[in-house]
Specification:
about 25% strand; about 750 residues; 14 helices; about 20% helix; globular
Length: about 750
């Protein structure tokens, strides 16, 4: 067996052994051609043929491939909850690669591989082809909307003689200007001097170190000079060099459609004006109900009704108010529409079930889901259920899942991919999580309705209040084909936007607020629900990265954002990290804790306050968490009003200081929360004081009542029970802190 996939798996940050690299080779350079072969193969050759457009005799050369280490989808080793048998199988076969001669433009290259096994058996691949592309000056390739800024002579198009592939251009970057935004970014707020891109990607932990994100946007503020910003108006992948190669310019390169024309939207003004102009085109947040600002509680080992209610009882017993519970491990882990242990007749045509179709055994994991929802509501707690936008195909599906898969194919609601003959077949998930699953095309209204109707009974009859719309990053590959005929290069980034929108429409149609809780997104996600920062370890470093993520997301128009307090993965955080993270989360839009599944090993790794208190033996944990959670309850009216103002004015709810002072760049991870609160979290262990920048005006330390003049730095003591927070003098919100002073 030999396998060659010209575009590889579609992993945006890795070159697979069996692909052509680059996928679109450039004239004047070489390319790598690779295959994967089974262990019996002892030699691989490739005949590369050159056919000039001008006609005449072609040329051919035989390349001898050399054995290489095998890579697949960016992984060489298993690890974490993303490991799969698929990656192990990939490493059981051998990699072979060769480098082409320097390539020419003005013609087509065709190539075919031949493999020889130890038994003398010969196998040949089908024939593949490509054209080497050339960068050419093309000022018409960039259409600027707004005040033109593209540097003269910088606009070029990568073209292979038949179609365009990319467009690149440069923008000026003046001394003292800072570039920020780009969606949710973990490593830093100021990206000047860096390179980055915009592609939706599931980076499991260490997002700050890897500099990858679930929620990118090709949108930026340029702050510190005259004030401006830009949006590369495309859903395709874009790369940015933000003054790293040339300190006086921003260099942009974007994938393009066959016509090779790119729209660039430019905005002038303050950061708020720039953000507002961007949101005018892509959409603004919809105001969500005030209960989203209360504490959210979650744990992956809360996988029975009894355990969920036990944890809610413990919240009450410890006097730690909770407003929402998120249940991840509720379903049969198969259909993701039925509660585990529920009994029902298979709907062979894939039609939706209603609550009356199910019976729930008393001895089962969820003996009375509706009764549980009703009791949670009686306690003023909202219920959210976890979702994944996939039809799980491993192990081999049976029962309702098998019927759903057949129905999805028959109803034509799936994303597709080309097979070896050029026909279309259902796309099989290439990621590490739920590998080979089928994926509904939620960007298509008909397909999205087919999918969400199967969940309608959860909302209308059981009483679910929202959905954790997880895992929107599974569409890999430019060659995917969506139901509207467009390809993955254009549509993959839009999938998580449509995913949240589909569930929001379901909730709204049932008379509920469209509360979705997503980790993935792209341009346009601003209008769809709430977001959290994804999977992270319980470390101080990850704490700081998450605060950067929240601030950059806010600068890009995301209003309802949170993170897993003190991280959700690995060993529990120590008491100091947990307390400092809980304090900071009191002052971000969504306040929620969550913990990863740990196979019910002991000791527990739940991130509940009582488990952290018991595990660490630190008697400060529970009273401080209780105090800050009650403070959060008192802040809910302020947060409701502040969110309403944000949506009306475009001034972010969790607002980086450069929105108020364009020169405020060396102030650390501080932010304004609404109009009247300034927050400076403690992000280092053992810190006894921090330096805080106060904007212009008069400011009151909410804990001591001391008043400070603004437009200067102050040194603030940080005992473990305090996070530096200041309010504008005379602000009504000071009343919320009265009992804490």
């Amino acid at each position: 067996m030999i396998r060659h996939r010209p575009a590889g798996s579609g992993h945006p940050y890795s070159v697979d052994t069996e692909q052509r690299h680059p996928v679109v080779p450039e004239a004047g350079r070489t390319a790598t051609l690779g295959v994967r072969a089974d262990g019996a193969v002892t030699a691989v050759t490739c005949v590369l043929e050159w056919l000039p457009d001008a006609g005449g005799a072609g040329e051919s050369v035989e390349l001898t491939l050399e054995p290489v280490a095998t890579t697949s989808r960016g992984r060489l080793t298993d690890g974490g909850h993303l490991a799969s048998a698929q990656s192990r199988r990939a490493r059981a076969v051998g990699g072979w690669q060769a480098t082409t001669p320097v390539l020419r433009s003005g013609g087509t290259y065709r190539y075919r591989f031949t493999a020889v096994s130890g038994q003398g058996r010969t196998e040949r691949s089908r024939t593949f082809a490509f054209r080497a592309a050339t960068w050419e000056d093309a000022p018409e390739a960039l259409i600027e909307h707004g005040r033109a800024r593209a540097l003269a002579g910088s606009v070029q198009r990568l073209h292979d003689g038949e179609r365009a592939w990319r467009v690149r251009f440069a923008l000026p970057l003046a001394p003292g200007e800072h570039v920020t935004g780009f969606g949710e970014r973990f490593d830093t707020l100021d990206h000047t001097g860096a390179v980055l891109d915009s592609v939706v990607f599931e980076q499991y932990k260490s997002q700050g170190a890897e500099r990858k994100t679930y929620l990118p946007m090709p949108f930026a503020h340029v702050v510190g000079g005259e004030g401006w910003g830009f949006h590369v108006d495309t859903t395709r992948r874009v790369w940015f060099d933000l003054g790293r190669t040339h300190a006086d310019r921003i260099e942009v390169e974007a994938e393009a459609g066959p016509d090779g024309v790119l729209d660039l939207r430019l905005f002038d003004g303050t950061p708020t004006e720039v953000l507002g102009a961007f949101l005018d085109r892509v959409g603004r947040a919809e105001e969500l109900p005030g209960w989203v600002f209360r504490l959210w509680a979650s744990g992956n080992e809360w996988n029975t009704q009894a355990e969920v209610m036990r944890q809610m009882d413990l919240h009450a017993a410890h006097d730690i108010p909770v407003g929402s519970v998120v249940i991840e491990a509720w379903s049969d882990e198969s259909t993701f529409t039925a509660f585990r242990d529920a009994r029902y007749e298979v709907s062979h045509d894939g039609a939706p079930h209603r609550l009356g179709d199910f019976t729930f055994p008393a001895e089962g994991a969820w003996p009375d889901p509706k009764g549980m929802a009703d009791e949670l509501h009686r306690r003023d707690i909202r219920l959210h259920l976890w979702q994944i936008p996939l039809l799980k195909m491993r192990p081999h599906p049976s029962g309702q899942l098998s019927a759903d898969a057949r129905a999805a194919i028959a109803e034509d609601v799936l994303i597709r991919e080309p097979d070896a003959r050029g026909a279309l077949r259902p796309y099989r998930n290439r990621g590490w999580w739920f590998p080979l699953s089928l994926m509904p095309d939620l960007t298509d209204a008909r397909a999205a309705d087919w999918w969400t109707e199967k969940r309608r009974y959860l909302v209308e009859e059981i009483g679910v209040d929202g959905f954790k719309t997880d895992g929107g990053e599974h569409a890999w590959g430019a060659e995917l084909v969506y139901l509207d005929g467009r390809g993955g290069d254009e549509k993959n980034n839009t999938f998580p936007v449509a995913y949240a929108d589909a569930y929001g429409r379901l909730l709204r149609s049932a008379g509920k607020a469209p509360v979705t809780f997503s980790r993935a997104g792209f341009t346009g996600s601003q209008a769809h629900g709430a977001f959290w920062a994804g999977d992270e370890n319980s470390t101080w470093e990850a704490f700081a990265w998450s605060m950067n993520a929240g601030l950059s997301a806010a600068a890009s128009g995301i209003v309802y954002w949170g993170w897993d307090i003190a991280g959700f993965s690995g060993e529990i955080p120590d008491a100091e990290l947990y307390i400092r993270a809980f304090q900071a989360s009191t002052f971000v839009p969504i306040m929620q804790y969550h913990s990863e599944f740990n196979h019910h090993r002991t000791p527990s790794r739940d991130r509940t306050p009582w488990n952290i208190a018991e595990r660490t033996g630190d008697e400060r944990v529970l009273p401080l968490v209780r105090s800050f959670t009650h403070l959060r309850e008192r802040l809910v009216p302020y947060l409701e009003a502040a969110a309403r103002e944000t949506i009306a004015t475009d001034r972010p709810l969790m607002r980086p200081l450069f929105f108020d002072d364009p020169q405020a760049w060396d102030t650390g991870a501080q932010w304004m929360l609404g109009a009247d609160l300034l927050v400076a979290p403690v992000l280092e262990p053992g810190a006894t004081s921090v330096e805080v920048w106060l904007p212009e005006g008069s400011w009151v330390d909410v804990w001591s009542g001391a008043t400070h003049d603004g437009a200067r730095r102050v040194r603030v003591e940080t005992p473990i029970e305090r996070i530096p927070v200041f309010a504008r003098a005379g602000a009504e919100v000071l009343r919320a802190f009265a009992s804490e002073a």
